[in-house]
Design goal:
By secondary structure, the chain is an alpha/beta fold. The protein has 5 helices and 7 strands. It has one domain: Rossmann fold (3-Layer(aba) Sandwich), CATH 3.40.50.720. Helix 1 crosses helix 5 and helix 3 runs parallel beside helix 4. InterPro entries: CoA-bd, NAD(P)-bd_dom_sf.
Length: about 140
């Protein structure tokens, strides 16, 4: 995907999202997932933590898995190692979320292809917080 198309997609995703389910969100303030999700929460997005190892994060109840989330969300932000992406993509396609965003270093072409084949719009290997600060001024 060329840069202009990618930027347009990122802006569209951010414009059309109210709630973000964050897979791998830590409850530790020192972790990148926490810092990024907190910034997105402060920007006005509802954050839904998805992590079986935490009860809550950022004042929100955590869910064990993406398919356990009972709330509406439009975007899934992934903070898991790339090795887990393909298996996660099989769960993600069963959700109503249109958008999947994988943070820097989180890449798997097979998962990307699987998600896009199942009508998900995907950004891979980009920071949502950086994109938000650049595109949503």
């Amino acid at each position: 995907m060329n840069n202009d198309k990618e930027q347009l997609l990122m802006k569209k995703m951010l414009d059309n999202t109210k709630s973000i389910a964050v897979i791998g969100l830590s409850d530790k303030p020192s972790r990148t997932s926490y810092q990024i999700a907190k910034a997105m929460q402060q920007a006005g997005y509802k954050i839904i933590p998805v992590n079986p190892n935490v009860e809550e994060a950022l004042g929100e109840k955590a869910y064990n898995a993406i398919l356990d989330v009972k709330e509406d969300f439009q975007l899934i932000n992934v903070f898991r190692r790339s090795v887990y992406l393909y298996d996660l993509s099989k769960e993600i396609v069963k959700t109503d979320a249109d958008y999947v965003w994988m943070q820097p270093g989180v890449t798997d072409q097979a998962a990307y292809d699987y998600l896009t084949k199942h009508n998900k719009q995907v950004i891979m290997d980009r920071c949502i917080k950086v994109a938000h600060s650049v595109l949503m001024r």
